[in-house]
Specification:
- There is one protein chain.
- This protein has 733 residues and is mainly β.
- Strands 10, 11, 13, 14 and 15 form a 5-stranded antiparallel β-sheet that branches. Strands 18, 19, 21, 22 and 23 form a 5-stranded antiparallel β-sheet that branches. Strands 26, 27, 29, 30 and 31 form a 5-stranded antiparallel β-sheet that branches.
- β21 (308-317) and β22 form a beta hairpin.
- It is extended, with a radius of gyration of 51 Å.
Length: 733
């Protein structure tokens, strides 16, 4: 009944351990606090419906104003003045709402008495209230969470829900999720007429849980109900256990120097600190590195040969680091000693050119080498700069003086160790820079001149030569600083540039020319510009087919059209037909500014196709354009396998040879499997002249109706150079 919270200004527990751990987390027990609870033992008043209310919905419930000291309430309701014939002094518990099990009678006066009871056992004499019902029903009121309360924190993950009864509710829809509006935990579940919900599984740790409760009755669902939320307790975290190497195993020997580390995962670890050294407790290879939540470590370089490697791995999480973890070790393989391999220059690279004269040498290290002999000269095999000098176990050499300009420098490097010198090593060379030159001056347009107007669109550029330039970078655009026509192109050591296409009409053309040489690019060069001539618009010329060409024959029926572009055209009208001037295939279609047309269906075989193309622009349509034509191919008969079933169902009742009507001078001969001619016909046409499984030859060998089986045919086409077509027919009935 009574709820209180006592707070203290003492320091809270230092960590998540139980009280008394390591002499810390001391538990404070107070016996000097007295809690006095003040309340008044008094009756309560009706809050809904109000006393004397009329036209109250028949599905109403009863709500009263709570007495904070009450342990519960006795409720009486009736249609008599004593308020006893419906509910007679029923203990409804510590609530402030009561919902009837069925709707009240319409247009009826109801009497209500609510008597609180207290821990003292006091019995009060309380007033009787009344209200009168109407004939309407209303949707129920909203409700609120009772436990956990809205915005509560540190809620146990095994907590369940309870809420206040809603006035007029017959039941509740419940949604619970881990995001605002979410339903991933409970999706609008009808939990019935209860005010509690027990979750089947624990809630997630440290998560905001969003709860929506919608009371309902026969009139509908409560509206405008507010979503509430609470936050669950954080997950308890304990210090993780130690781990062990899984590869190499502790005390392993002859371990490869390229070996990397792996260890066993610790479930509660959030990461691992790694130390690796060549002495016990040493960190000269890896110094307490946080490698994250992984169980492998790849060394950036090979381990040293024949060395005991000491490894310490410390799992950690937010509770702290694992303690008492044992250092483990293993021993690497012994180094094989063999004559070292050769090496190569890494700077300058072999065959490099324009190398600075102050450049020094570096080369690639050879792991088995204990030193290097170096020879450098200005001739092949020469040693005039460095004569077979033992430079020791290094991979660099700094010349005491600058190298000569514009010279080929020859370098020979010979690695060595106690076994001997590398053999067969190739001499490498590079070429030093030429004597330095100075950055060139800028240049200017010589044609068109800067600020010129009415410049022809076919004009190309020329500019004044710069004596020290080795070439020029050119940028041309239609806006200041623009490069949409030429983008910083290296045009070489020339003073002209021919545009691949005409410039646009009536446009300011911006030109930047930057001379360059090996010393660098000219600086501070000014952009120049000129304006092209205005365009005069005239009716476009006609065009011609480019594919198929006019008068072409044997053109594929899948062919599409292409024609030559007309520079001044902004579009084309296209007509295509099977008669001169005809438009039965394409009727004066505006295809836009393209030079191709793809037919939606194949063209007809052996047909002259007539094409008219009319270019147009804003000045008008081209005039006097000539119609062109071409002839499509004849069909090629290639099918050699047929099947027929002359059973009168209208499907495959006869041998259909697609395209045979193109070759009227044909003859077909059909043989049975013994080579007997059973059918022969000229001018086969798939209609009145066709094979329906009935013999017209060799009838003395059997009935006119041929039996099921395989038959062979020869088809001669006299009107075409195509050879006789041979194949077989499978006859089924």
């Amino acid at each position: 009944m009574y709820h209180c919270e006592i707070t203290s200004d003492l320091v809270p527990f230092e960590n998540a351990n139980p009280p008394g751990t390591d002499g810390k987390n001391l538990l404070l027990v107070r016996n000097d606090i007295t809690l006095n609870v003040n309340y008044t033992e008094s009756c309560v008043s009706l809050a809904q419906p109000l006393n004397g209310a009329t036209n109250v919905p028949v599905n109403t419930g009863i709500t009263w104003i709570e007495n904070s000291g009450a342990c519960g309430y006795y409720l009486s309701v009736g249609t008599n003045a004593a308020a006893t014939n419906l509910i007679n002094n029923v203990d409804v518990g510590e609530v402030n709402t009561y919902n009837f099990t069925s709707n009240l009678s319409p247009s009826t006066v109801y009497y209500v008495k609510i008597v609180p009871y207290f821990a003292s056992g006091t019995t009060l004499t309380c007033s009787i209230y009344s209200f009168t019902t109407g004939i309407i029903t209303t949707i129920p009121s909203c409700t609120t969470l009772l436990d956990p309360e809205n915005n509560a924190t540190q809620i146990p993950i095994d907590a369940n829900l309870s809420w206040n009864p809603a006035n007029g509710a017959d039941g509740y829809y419940l949604s619970v999720g881990t995001t605002s509006g979410g339903t991933d935990l409970i999706n609008n579940q009808n939990v019935g007429n209860v005010t509690t919900y027990d979750f089947t599984t624990d809630l997630p740790y440290n998560t905001t849980i969003y709860v929506s409760i919608a009371p309902y009755n026969a009139a509908g669902n409560a509206t405008g109900c507010t979503q509430e939320s609470f936050i669950t307790e954080p997950q308890p975290i304990v210090i993780p256990d130690c781990t062990n190497l899984s590869n190499p195993l502790a005390n392993a020997t002859n371990v490869g120097i390229a070996t990397n580390l792996t260890w066993n995962a610790v479930a509660t670890a959030m990461g691992y600190y790694l130390s690796v050294g060549t002495t016990s407790g040493g960190t000269d290879l890896v110094n307490n590195q946080d490698v994250g939540n992984v169980t492998t470590y790849d060394f950036t370089t090979d381990l040293p040969y024949n060395t005991t490697i000491y490894v310490s791995i410390t799992p950690y999480n937010t509770a702290g680091n694992a303690t008492g973890c044992t250092q483990e070790s293993f021993t690497t393989e012994s180094q094989p000693i063999v004559i070292p391999d050769c090496t190569n220059l890494s700077n300058p690279l072999a065959s490099a050119t324009n190398v600075g004269i102050t450049t020094n040498l570096t080369w690639n290290a050879v792991s088995t080498a204990t030193g290097y002999y170096l020879s450098v000269g200005t001739t092949s095999g020469g040693t005039d700069l460095v004569n077979n000098q033992d430079v020791g176990n290094v991979t660099t050499y700094d010349f005491t003086t600058d190298l000569p300009y514009n010279s080929t420098i020859y370098v020979t490097l010979t690695p060595y160790n106690t076994t001997g010198n590398a053999t067969g090593c190739t001499q490498e060379s590079f070429i030093t820079e030429p004597q330095p030159i100075v950055i060139p001056d800028c240049t200017n347009l010589s044609n068109p001149l800067a600020n010129a107007t009415n410049v022809g669109i076919a004009t190309n550029l020329t500019w004044n030569a710069v004596a020290t330039a080795m070439g020029y970078y050119l940028s041309v655009g239609t806006t200041s600083g623009g490069t949409d026509l030429v983008n910083n192109q290296d045009v070489g050591n020339v003073t002209t540039y021919d545009f691949t296409t005409d410039l646009p009409y009536n446009t300011t053309i911006y030109v930047s020319i930057t001379p360059y040489n090996t010393a660098g690019n000219a600086t501070g060069c000014t952009q120049e510009s000129f304006t092209t001539e205005s365009q005069s618009i005239v009716i476009p010329d006609c065009t011609n087919l480019s594919n198929p060409l006019a008068s072409a024959t044997n053109v594929s029926i899948t062919t599409n059209l292409t024609w030559n572009a007309v520079a001044t055209a902004t579009g084309y009208y296209l007509s295509v037909g099977t008669t001169s001037g005809g438009t039965d295939l394409v009727n004066n279609l505006n295809v836009g500014n393209v030079t191709t047309y793809d037919f939606t269906t194949d063209l007809p075989y052996t047909t002259t196709i007539y094409v008219s193309i009319t270019p147009y622009n804003t000045a008008g349509n081209a005039t006097g354009c000539t119609q062109e034509s071409f002839t499509t191919e004849m069909p090629v008969l290639s099918e050699t396998k047929y099947g027929i079933s002359p059973d009168g169902d209208g499907i495959n009742d006869y041998l259909e040879i697609v395209g045979i009507e193109i070759y009227p001078q044909n003859k077909i001969s059909i043989y049975n499997r013994w080579g007997d001619l059973v059918f022969e016909m000229k001018n086969y046409n798939n209609s009145d002249k066709k094979f329906e499984g009935i013999a017209n030859k060799s009838r003395e060998l059997g009935a006119d109706i041929l039996p099921e089986g395989t038959y062979f045919f020869v088809l001669d086409i006299n009107a075409n150079a195509q050879e006789a077509l041979k194949g077989f027919i499978v006859l089924k009935r």
